[in-house]
Design goal:
The structure holds two protein chains of two kinds. Chain A is built from seven helices and nine strands. By secondary structure, chain A is an alpha/beta fold. Chain A has a five-stranded parallel sheet, sandwiched between helices. In chain A, strands 2-1-4-5 form a four-stranded antiparallel sheet, covered by helices on one side. Chain B is α+β, with helices and mostly antiparallel strands. The longest helix of chain B is centred in the C-terminal third of the chain and has 43 residues. Chain B is elongated, with a radius of gyration of 33 Å. The N terminus of chain B is likely disordered. The chains are: A alpha/beta, B alpha+beta. Bound molecules: adenosine-5'-diphosphate and magnesium ion (MG). Adenosine-5'-diphosphate (ADP) binds next to β1, β2 and α1 of chain A.
């Protein structure tokens, strides 16, 4: 149950001593080496670091796509590290919105249908889905591109469709792994404007980047090495 | 990664969505889907066409058997489906017309007894003629034994038979060629070299087992037949009995014939008593052969088709690894992914099955134009069910593979 006290500066996410260790050919790769991290509601957090520093691994961990080798992960009071696959899928579906570097849209589906997908998995009626998808697309300025397929859209527009898809289920947290990495600087700027607006509206955002000017949009930056 | 096992992988909620996704995918790649499902197409085509063929054969077989009648015994010189050696039976005596009278008197099972002599010759009317006509000489009892009705006119009477009157009933083929719809009753025709007066026409009976027309015949009194065409052709005796006692009748007639022929107990029968049963036995063997071949082709093409579909599905899972990762990131559970791919392979198979059925429908129309037949609906439906089953079975392994993909590995896949 949500209590009224948890409105201001409540921690949404608590990571304690998170390790992710891979074994490649007998060698140990510490992708995450004891990460402690707290993310509050309505925070805009940037994660920086060189390639291979574990940014994506951390994002996947936060996004409940991956489970840590050891450590505790608490998401809105729920113990994620104890969850099974179905519970993780449910958390991803209801509480997390993903934005990928490569957009990851279904090429044969229209923008509207792409945005609808999380709602399908949430078992929401079709009419309601279409309505929510249109609303999400409108909020990223794509109300006139609803029935276009990804190959009929520019890179920036595709990423905005992806953002609409991430937002459509009103997640507690939006995760973006190098969302501007495949875009030119103008489109990148557009995307960052969208994220700024989302932050203004009260969304919690975690963004991975290795560009300082992108990280500058965030109100907190952490660095991985 | 945990391996998910049954229970039933398709959650009802996503079933409809998955069906929509699958139908869209199948229709978007019609040619590819069709090629993928070719084995299923052929399998369903084979089983349905085979069913149609057998239904048609059944119909025409039953029609032909009607001509023989299930309660008629045919006393003949030879067995219809004999396995005797020819040198043992070539010296058999002919069946005599006068045997019929004795049988009528002494048999307690015989209801009607008609001797039948047959000879083939041409039939003429003015300049038109039909050759190779079956000329049957018989008695008025024949009308009570045969199922064919007299359509126009009448059968000949006992008196006409006794007096050897030259009257004839003609078959449909004869009246069609010689009279072309004009009145036949009372008209004169020439059978061989002799003049006959037409007193009736027999209804159309069609072909016997698709081999020869039963309507290319004339029926005349046996007296006239004996006098004009005797020593030629052959003679037999048709005996109608009570269907319930056909086996007893068979025994009784055998005994009677042996008595007439004065055979000693050690001697073998030198005549044959035929009935429709051996036709049925022969026919069910033919049917078994056709059915067996059809089922063999069906199973073979379904198995080959199923392997092809499994293969394509593996390719599809590989190609769409990133899509699977994305779907999982958006909240799809393993079961939902499993359901999606199972539904897809089922839809491909169902699509193949439907194409196969429409082809079979066309094919059955063609078969139908050769002889009356129909596509058996029940079989067609089971065939569709079968194609869905093939879809599920061949989709299982690829779908499990898709469902069990690790979301991160899938997302990283290029
Ligand atoms: N599945 C894996 N198996 C082995 N090593 C991995 C695997 N995934 C990631 N790693 C390693 O973990 C480290 C962190 O990777 P990643 O989080 O992708 O880095 P970043 O996103 O910061 O570039 C890298 O050294 C990478 O090679
Ligand atoms: Mg990365």
């Amino acid at each position: 149950m949500i209590t009224t006290k948890r409105t201001i500066n409540v921690s949404l996410i608590l990571l304690k001593k998170i390790y992710k260790i891979y074994h490649v050919g007998g060698e140990e790769v510490r992708a995450l080496d004891g990460v402690d991290l707290t993310i509050s509601k309505n925070e805009f957090l940037a994660i920086k670091g060189p390639s291979g520093s574990g940014k994506s691994t951390l994002m996947n961990m936060i996004g409940c796509l991956d489970t840590p080798t050891s450590g505790d992960y608490e998401f809105e009071g729920e113990m994620v590290h104890n969850m099974d696959d179905n519970q993780l899928a449910s958390i991803r579906n209801r509480k997390i919105g993903f934005v990928f570097q490569t957009f990851n849209l279904l090429p044969k589906a229209t923008a509207q249908h792409n945005v609808e997908i999380p709602l399908v998995y949430a078992n929401i009626r079709r009419e309601k889905r279409l309505m929510m998808a249109s609303k999400a697309l409108t909020s990223v300025g794509l109300e006139d591109r609803m029935h276009h397929k990804p190959n009929e859209l520019s890179g920036g527009q595709r990423q905005r469709v992806a953002i609409a898809r991430a937002l459509v289920n009103n997640p507690s947290l939006v995760l973006a792994d190098e969302p501007t990495g495949n875009l030119d600087s103008k489109s990148g700027q557009e995307i960052m404007d969208v994220f700024d607006a989302l932050h203004q509206e009260g969304n919690t955002i975690v963004l991975v980047t290795h560009e300082d000017y992108i990280a500058a949009h965030a109100n907190r930056t952490i660095q991985l090495f | 990664m945990k391996i998910i096992l049954l229970p039933m992988p398709i959650a009802p909620f996503s079933c409809f969505e998955n069906l929509k996704i699958s139908i869209t995918a199948v229709l978007a790649n019609k040619t590819r889907s069709l090629l993928t499902a070719l084995g299923v197409v052929i399998g369903i085509l084979a089983v349905t066409l085979m069913g149609t063929l057998i239904s048609g054969l059944d119909q025409s077989f039953e029609k032909s058997m009607e001509f023989l009648g299930k309660d008629v015994l045919y006393i003949r010189k030879f067995q219809w489906f004999g396995e005797d050696e020819w040198w043992e039976i070539r010296n058999r005596p002919d069946i005599l017309v006068k045997n019929a009278g004795v049988i009528r008197e002494r048999s307690q099972y015989a209801q009607y007894v008609a001797p039948v002599s047959e000879w083939w010759t041409s039939v003429r009317k003015d300049d038109e003629s039909v050759s190779g006509v079956r000329v049957s000489g018989t008695t008025e009892d024949y009308a009570m034994i045969t199922v064919a009705e007299v359509e126009k006119g009448r059968f000949f009477s006992r008196a006409e038979n006794r007096s050897g009157a030259r009257v004839a009933l003609i078959g449909k083929d004869i009246s069609d060629v010689l009279f072309e719809g004009r009145n036949i009753l009372g008209e004169r025709i020439q059978i061989g070299n002799y003049n006959f007066r037409i007193i009736g026409e027999i209804e159309k009976q069609g072909k016997f087992l698709g081999m020869f027309s039963l309507d290319k015949q004339v029926i005349i009194p046996i007296g006239a037949h004996q006098r004009l065409f005797s020593r030629r052709g052959w003679t037999g005796i048709n005996v109608k009995v009570d269907n319930a006692h056909i086996d007893d009748a068979h025994e009784e007639l055998t005994a009677l014939m042996r008595q007439l022929r004065r055979l000693r107990p050690s001697e073998k029968n030198n005549f044959a008593i035929n009935r429709q049963d051996p036709f049925r036995e022969q026919y069910s063997m033919i049917k078994l052969a056709i059915g067996g071949t059809g089922i063999f082709i069906t199973i073979l093409s379904l198995v080959v088709g199923g392997i092809g579909i499994a293969n394509i599905m593996f390719v599809s899972v590989k190609e769409r690894t990133k899509e699977i990762g994305t779907r999982k990131a958006l909240g799809a559970t393993s079961r939902m992914i499993l359901g999606q791919f199972l539904m897809e392979s089922m839809t491909i198979c169902l699509f193949g099955g439907l194409v196969g059925m429409s082809l079979a429908y066309g094919g059955s129309r063609i078969i139908n134009s050769f002889f009356p037949s129909e596509m058996p609906i029940g079989l067609a439906m089971s065939a569709l069910g079968l194609s869905m089953l093939v879809g599920i079975i061949s989709g299982l392994a690829p779908s499990y593979k898709a469902a069990n993909l690790d979301p991160i590995d899938a997302l990283r896949y290029e």
